[in-house]
Specification:
- Chain A: This is Fibronectin type III and SPRY domain containing 2.
- Chain A: It comes from Pipistrellus kuhlii.
- The complex is a heterodimer of chains A (690) and B (265).
- Chain A is an alpha+beta fold.
- In chain A, the strands form seven sheets. Chain A has a seven-stranded antiparallel beta sheet with strand order 21-22-33-24-29-30-31, with no helix packed on it. In chain A, strands 6, 7, 9, 10 and 11 form a five-stranded antiparallel beta sheet that branches.
- In chain A, α1 packs across α3, α2 packs across α4 and α3 packs across α4.
- Chain A is elongated.
- Classes of the chains: A alpha+beta (690), B alpha/beta (265).
């Protein structure tokens, strides 16, 4: 970069300016002129002298511009952010100015319509044209094609959306729970308030009562005493009156004549004597002093005391069941207490939820625990249980919590291993639920069994609604496949595994379709027609069984790929092998309709006759070496069905057959004999050509 | 040996060429057609030799059969030689359509005046493959042969006389038992003389009886309404019977409504 100093000499600061200018250019992506042109409204900045504008020298120009500004603004160093900010402003200013005045100014990243950005610089997080990648600014940066960047940005967004959705659900659940807690707290504290109020009122009432009683009692006592005293006073008065009267009488007597005096005196003396003999009660009837009257406040004390004693606790709140916290025989119940009550233990009661009216015999069980959770075991799988919990302390039991329903996880399903069908790319698994009541869904898990017991990657297919699943697999591997049942309580334990080898197509002969005169082996691969005409047991005729043709069909996995299998035949027997669609008319011969294609061999010594039958027609074909093992290749993609002599790798015949529906292997024995199927064979090279 | 390219046409992504060369076996200039599929540009391809029938040249197959698409798709080099030496100026060579020019019968003649030039057997089994292997991207280990009518006969005998040389042999309406049919009798007596034991060496039905039976895949297609079949010229049943006895694997397909014509291809 040439450095043509303009204006006053700047010495070493020039270098700094250049570097910083570059940095700022970089930092603020200021190469794009469009961005800046708009910002530039008024022109109040000083004129800058510029002479040429080829791209190479633009930096110089900028440099001079900002340097000029810097000078004007009196900046020496570049430390503070404020300075940088101002500098940026100044810089922008200058740049914009240039573009306005000089249209030939070359801007490296001007966006032409023809040249839209097609790559993405991950380091600068900018879309660019591919050319720009070469520029210094982006050298060494990670650049990806724009479409890829778009895709990964879309992926990010999608992922984040999913997370948002999840969060929404979580928050909603939490909000519900909070509401419940809110209500409980209101209730609990309301109770406390009431409790206290009534306690307190009781105390007040008792005190008021005591007051009344006491006052009354005092009043009564006073009255009593006063009355007693008054009585005494009255009798005193009477006594006095009598005394006075006697005194007056005696005085009168003394003033009487001797004879009258003696008469009266004796009588008087009698009276006096009698009177004075009567005791004068000069004891006070009532003591003036109050007796000791300690008020009995013990009951009030008790009441006051009980205000402070610990009340019985408030009702706890049972939590809703945490997802996947249950097993097939246990659940983990949790609850919380939303008050400051002291609790010594909790009592958890539960019983199974049954359909039908309440009042049926529910056996309720109770467990006492100290914690706020409990794992309840020995439960039935896939069953709902109703729980409620009470808190307990010295004062008594709390009211019971609301009832919460928890569900145990289901029992593991049972895979029907005899019905497993597979091919190179997929497997069809069927299973039994393992539970009496319905479950929510099933999960199918696959691991590649590289070595027994080795922990490989497990692939899961979730949300399977019915008891069957078609899973995609890689060719030439061995898999262990498990199934779990799922309900609100969580997943069941794994089922027993089914092993699948994706070396070729595997299928079995279906006994349901088998003509009564054919016997199918245990492994579903051999069909035998014995000499005896009538079978030992004649099962009832069914629409699924072949009735005329002594045939049986296999169950091939419904996958539109290539399927290959071999049938071992007896050269001397009359047999037919091929494929047929599921709804082939079972009362017709194989090959006699449009729904079946097969090869038929008839042995009429010494000639072997071969026919390739479909819709009752066959080409005229002669085969010189009778096959002992027939290879059959069913190719859905190419719509062909080919037959081979396996032992000599000879192609015999190929049908071109439109196969809109799925077909299954079929075979029949026109005379007593035996046909054995060989499965799971990879398509041989010579066959693969067809 | 110098090859002179006579023509070259693009076809289904490959090239259909015709070359001319001086044949050592046949002592004359011979033409052959060769189709090079797109795959031949990058690697060696299997070679398939087509032998035409009576009256044909190297042109019949490449013009009328429409085989190019299949050859292109499957990456096969297809070589179609002429059916006899030409321009040899032998007296009587153009007298009949089923003997002489255009009717080489793929034998090495022993009788005068034919023995100098009429050595189609050696040409097809030795000279031509060597020429092709040296000049074109073919895999010498993967060679097969097929033909129609007289060419079918030629394909069968070449395969049966050279166990292991050809991976497969197919024939359309071949002359299977020339020793017993009018065409064969006429041709063999002309080229090989009256000693019938020499004839058997070029008769598929006889050859199969002594064929050592290594892996050979034989496919024969025969039109049911072929008049030469009913005329007893082709005699496939004899061949089949011999193969069945010898346990040589053959698949023989009798096709409805098909005649003897070139359109059969």
């Amino acid at each position: 970069m040439t450095s043509a100093p303009r204006g006053a000499a700047r010495g070493t600061s020039q270098r700094d300016l250049e570097e910083d200018a570059d940095e700022l250019v970089h930092l603020y992506g200021l190469e794009d002129d469009d961005e800046l042109g708009d910002e530039f409204a008024d022109e109040t900045m000083p004129r800058i002298e510029v002479s040429e504008y080829p791209a190479a020298e633009q930096r110089d120009w900028r440099l001079s511009g900002e340097a000029a500004e810097a000078e004007d603004l009196g900046f020496g160093g570049w430390g503070s952010e404020g300075q940088c900010q101002d500098l940026r402003e100044a810089y922008r200013y200058a740049h914009g100015r240039a573009s306005e005045e000089y249209e030939c100014y070359v801007i490296p990243e001007e966006e032409d319509e023809e040249e839209a950005p097609d790559v993405f610089c991950a380091t600068c997080k900018l879309p660019l044209r591919a050319l720009e990648k070469v520029l210094e600014e982006h050298k060494g940066h990670e650049v990806t094609p724009l479409s890829k960047a778009l895709e990964s940005a879309k992926d990010e967004i999608h992922k984040n959306m999913c997370r948002l959705e999840k969060q929404i659900i979580e928050m909603e659940n939490f909000a519900c729970h909070l509401e419940e807690v809110f209500i409980t707290v209101e209730e609990n504290f309301g109770r406390q308030e009431q409790n206290f109020e009534s306690h307190y009122n009781e105390i007040l009432e008792t005190l008021a009562q005591k007051y009344e009683e006491k006052i009354l009692a005092l009043g009564e006592k006073k009255k009593e005493k006063l009355e007693a005293l008054y009585g005494q006073l009255v009798s005193c008065g009477e006594n006095l009156d009598t005394c006075k009267e006697l005194m007056e009488t005696v005085e009168e007597i003394c003033h009487e004549e001797k004879v009258d005096f003696i008469k009266d005196a004796v009588a008087m003396a009698d009276r006096l004597r009698k009177f004075l003999e009567t005791k004068t009660d000069v004891e006070l009837a009532a003591q003036p002093a109050l007796e000791d009257q300690t008020l009995d406040f013990s009951d009030v004390e008790q009441l006051l005391g009980s205000i402070n004693t610990i009340p019985a606790p408030s009702a706890p709140v049972i939590n809703p069941q945490a997802p996947s916290s249950a097993t097939g025989s246990s659940v983990r119940v949790c609850w919380s207490l939303f008050s400051d009550d002291t609790v010594e233990s909790y009592q958890l009661s539960y019983r199974p939820v049954r359909d039908g009216s309440p009042g049926t015999d529910h056996t309720e069980s109770t467990v006492t625990v100290k914690e706020t959770y409990c794992s309840v075991a020995n439960l039935e799988p896939n069953t709902q249980y109703e729980f409620r919990v009470t808190a307990q302390n010295r004062a008594g039991l709390s009211p019971a919590s609301e009832r919460a329903v928890y569900m145990t996880a289901p029992s593991p399903p049972v895979i029907k291993s005899k019905e497993v069908r597979s091919c190179e790319e997929a497997a069809l698994i069927r299973w039994e639920s393992g539970n009496l009541n319905p479950v929510d869904s099933y999960t199918v898990e696959l691991t590649q069994a590289e070595a027994p017991g080795a922990a490989g990657v497990t692939e899961s297919v979730v949300g399977v609604p019915t008891c069957e699943a078609l899973v995609q697999l890689q060719p030439r591997q061995s898999y262990a496949i498990y199934v779990r049942a799922l309900n609100v309580g969580g997943p069941s334990a794994r089922s027993e595994p089914a092993t699948v080898h994706t070396t070729g197509s595997y299928f079995r002969l279906d006994e349901q379709t088998c003509h009564p005169w054919l016997a199918i082996s245990e492994d579903g691969l051999t069909a035998v027609r014995s000499e005896r005409k009538a079978p030992t047991r004649e099962p009832p005729p069914r629409s699924t069984r072949f009735s005329r043709c002594v045939a049986v069909m296999g169950n091939l996995i419904p996958v539109r790929g290539r399927h290959y299998w071999e049938v071992e035949v007896d050269e001397r027997s009359d047999y037919t092998v091929g494929v047929a669609s599921e709804d082939v008319p079972k009362q017709e011969d194989l090959g006699a309709n449009r729904l079946s294609w097969c090869m038929r061999h008839t042995w009429a010594a010494p000639r072997h006759k071969y026919e390739f039958l479909h819709n009752k027609t066959t080409p005229d074909i002669r085969i010189t070496v009778p096959p002992k093992k027939i290879g059959i290749l069913l190719d859905y993609e190419n719509s062909t069905l080919s037959f081979f002599n396996v032992d000599i790798s000879q192609h015999l015949y190929t049908f071109s057959c439109q196969l809109p529906q799925f077909v299954h292997p079929c075979l029949s024995l026109e005379k007593p004999g035996r046909l054995k199927i060989h499965n799971g064979i990879p398509v041989p090279k010579h066959v693969a050509l067809y | 040996m110098a090859l002179k390219q006579i023509s070259s046409n693009k076809c289904f992504g490959g090239l259909q060429k015709v070359f001319e060369h001086d044949s050592v076996e046949l002592n004359c200039k011979m033409k052959f057609a060769i189709y090079l599929p797109p795959k031949a540009e990058t690697g060696k391809c299997p070679a398939l030799y087509w032998l035409s029938g009576l009256t044909c040249t190297e042109q019949n197959f490449i013009s009328k059969s429409g085989y190019h698409q299949a050859a292109s798709e499957h990456g096969l080099v297809v070589i179609a030689p002429d059916t006899s030496p030409r321009g040899c100026n032998i007296k009587g060579e153009d007298e009949s359509w089923d003997f002489g020019t255009g009717a080489g019968f793929y034998v090495d003649a022993t009788e005068h005046p034919w023995k100098t030039n009429y050595r189609m057997y050696s040409y097809v089994t030795e000279e031509l493959p060597q020429l092709i292997n040296a000049n074109f991207p073919v895999d010498p280990q993967r060679m097969s042969i097929f033909g129609h009518s007289m060419g079918g006969h030629g394909a069968l005998i070449c395969a049966l006389k050279n166990p292991g040389k050809y991976k497969s042999v197919s024939a359309f309406a071949p002359i299977c038992n020339p020793v017993l049919c009018p065409w064969g009798k006429k041709a063999f007596s002309g080229y090989l003389g009256t000693d019938q034991s020499k004839w058997k060496a070029y008769d598929a039905t006889h050859l199969v009886k002594s064929f050592p039976g290594s892996q050979l895949d034989i496919l024969i297609d025969q039109g049911k309404d072929d008049q030469f079949l009913s005329d007893g010229q082709l005699l496939p049943d004899n061949f089949i019977a011999a193969c069945a006895e010898k346990k040589t694997p053959v698949v023989f397909r009798l096709q409805e409504l098909l005649l003897h014509r070139y359109l059969y291809y």
